[in-house]
Design a protein that fits this description.
It is a single chain. This protein is mainly β. The protein contains three helices and 29 strands. The chain has a single domain, classed as Beta-galactosidase, Chain A, domain 5, CATH 2.70.98.
Length: 339
């Protein structure tokens, strides 16, 4: 298997999901609008070579622990672990050699619920990036005839460990390279979020109400309304880079968010069985790279909706449990449904 190997899922409605073996990286999702016009709705690069040379988080599978762990430190079974520091003072997305940079084994499989599907497999050795246990991860990418792109995760470790896997595609429903997501309307099924602290560089452990704040997306509103808000949380990251606490979490599949661009005629719903969704509006994009349609990848060019356990959960007892016991299975389902 080569990092540059390309795979494609298609259904009868003209929806296509394109990905490569390196990081299981989704390099394109082509979706029709309500007039049947097709656009690629994930930002990134025009070519596989561009994807391999560019931002390796675009559309990739992130782990072993997606999002941030404060100071890269956690304790498990009385033993202290020090992980790679690769994001300010913190550990991010599994470290500087995370799952997004690994070449996954990819195999097409026939599953009755999908028009097309692939299984992606990665074995991470004991001690990889200083995580305990050999972790075997199996991810299924499936596309249904109802325009649902389904990501199913299954992982098992030889030792107790911590885990948090996610997919890091940035969406622009008008089409990649057409501008920012400011005019997209976003609804998040979350009455609470986890505020961040500038000095810590991530969550404090507080779980706060979104009501009467710029983080209130319980009713759909434009992302631009929050991007321009006079709000300390927004100013800290020049946009949104926050974890939202999905209402009524019980391990079953629930609506996490709905993204819509009315003028483009496209809507996407996100479902998950995880307790949180990280919304990130790509404030670090600075137009220095060319993306699809030859357009610069500008600030707020796309929005990531990453279903997951909360950031720094291993160090916050009141956050959802991120421990995976030896020989038990970590399961996670995320569905991106295009309407």
């Amino acid at each position: 298997m080569k990092a540059s190997d390309v795979f494609k899922l298609k259904n009868k409605n003209g929806v296509e999901v394109i990905f490569i073996a390196r990081g299981g990286q989704i390099t394109g999702i082509k979706v029709p609008n309500n007039k049947g016009e097709i656009a690629d709705v994930v930002i990134g690069y025009e070519t596989t070579e561009g994807a391999l040379a560019g931002d390796a988080y675009f559309g990739a599978l992130c782990g072993r622990y997606a999002n941030r762990i404060v100071n890269g430190q956690f304790e498990l079974n009385g033993e202290k672990y020090q992980l790679d520091i690769n994001n300010g003072p913190n550990h991010l997305h599994g470290g500087s050699d995370g799952f997004n940079l690994r070449t996954w084994e990819v195999e097409e499989v026939q599953l009755p619920q999908f028009a097309q599907s692939y299984k992606l497999t990665l074995v991470s050795p004991d001690g990889d990036q200083n995580y305990p246990g050999e972790l075997t991860t199996l991810v299924t990418y499936g596309l249904t005839e109802d325009n649902e792109f389904v990501i199913e995760y299954d992982a098992v470790s030889t030792k107790d460990t911590i885990i948090n896997l996610t997919s890091h595609a940035y969406f622009n429903l008008e089409g990649a390279g057409t501008g920012t997501v400011a005019e997209h309307e976003l609804l998040i099924n979350a009455d609470k979020f986890t505020p961040i602290d500038g000095e810590i560089g991530t969550v404090t452990g507080e779980i706060a109400e979104v009501k009467d704040t710029a983080m209130d997306f319980t009713t759909a509103k434009s992302i631009g309304e929050t991007l321009s808000a006079d709000c300390p949380q927004v100013k800290l990251v020049d946009g949104i880079d926050h974890n939202f606490v999905i209402n009524g979490y019980d391990g079953s599949l629930k609506l996490a968010a709905r993204l819509e661009h009315k003028a483009a005629g496209r809507t996407m719903e996100v479902y998950t069985d995880q307790p949180g969704v990280q919304i990130y509006t790509g404030s670090h994009f600075d137009s220095s790279e060319k993306g699809k349609l030859g357009a610069p990848i500008e600030k707020w060019a796309g929005v990531a909706l990453e279903t997951q356990i909360f950031p720094d959960s291993p160090n916050k007892e009141h956050f959802p449990d991120a421990i995976l016991k030896a020989e038990e299975h970590y399961k996670h389902i995320c569905v991106y449904k295009f309407l």
